[in-house]
Specification:
The chain is mainly alpha-helical. It is built from four helices and two strands, in the order ααβαβα. Strands 1-2 form a two-stranded parallel ribbon. α2 runs parallel beside α3. The longest helix is centred in the N-terminal third of the chain and has 10 residues. The radius of gyration is 13 Å and the shape is globular.
């Protein structure tokens, strides 16, 4: 899903950065990288999840970047929204 999404976003002239794991997303944010939006998979090939990104980044009360989690799970919306609210 990520390669397709990335190619479509790049076609619109938007700069992107693709990383292989949820830990890479978290590390970049914690290292001070700034993004307008984070688009992450719900599951990574290495077994990590988009949930890990949510659980980790929500601990920082100053974190305000919108996160979109790509998934084929039709019932995931409420689960991910509830993670953020916990």
């Amino acid at each position: 899903m990520a390669p397709f999404t990335n190619s479509k976003i790049k076609m619109m002239g938007i700069e992107t950065e693709v990383v292989p794991t949820a830990s890479d997303v978290i590390d970049r944010i914690q290292d001070g990288k700034e993004y307008d939006i984070i688009i992450t998979n719900n599951v990574y090939p290495q077994g990590e999840s988009g949930e890990k990104v949510l659980y980790t980044l929500k601990e920082d009360e100053n974190f305000k970047i919108p996160i979109v989690i790509l998934t084929v799970d039709h019932n995931a919306r409420e689960r991910y929204l509830n993670i953020w609210k916990i």
